[in-house]
Amino acid sequence: MDLAHLHLILNHLPIVGFPILLIFILWAHFRKDTALRKFSYVIAVGLAFATFGAFQTGEPAEDRAEAVGAVKSVIHEHEEAAETSMILVWVTAALAFVAFFTVGKPTIESITSLLFIASLVLTIAALSWTGYEGGKIRHSDAIATTITPQSQEHDD
Length: 156
Description:
Layout: H1 3-10, H2 12-31, H3 34-56, H4 58-67, H5 72-102, H6 106-135, H7 149-153
């Protein structure tokens, strides 16, 4: 496994993890479960680090995809979306960090929690768009290294 493969694995963690996190945090508020709220905030920070890993392995994945013929403009759109997503992920993680320490302080907790949930929804939207753009990239590099353009021509 190389960094391009690691990118393909890591990028699914935030795309799936943040929507599940939204369910956790909403459930925690509905149930008034302090422990689950704190757990959700910790998970948000953990997902930020996983997202950072996906972001950092993007360059090697780009090089690999371009080497097997992926369109550069499609990769560029994915990269731009990823940059926006990464910023929103860090904002969400920072809000989670602050919200963690405001649990049990009703006045400020309602504000930090609302800001966290709003940021989380924006982050999910941005990550969804990033994933959509990434899905447009041809990932034949992750299938098998024995497939070559010449062998594909004979399959017509």
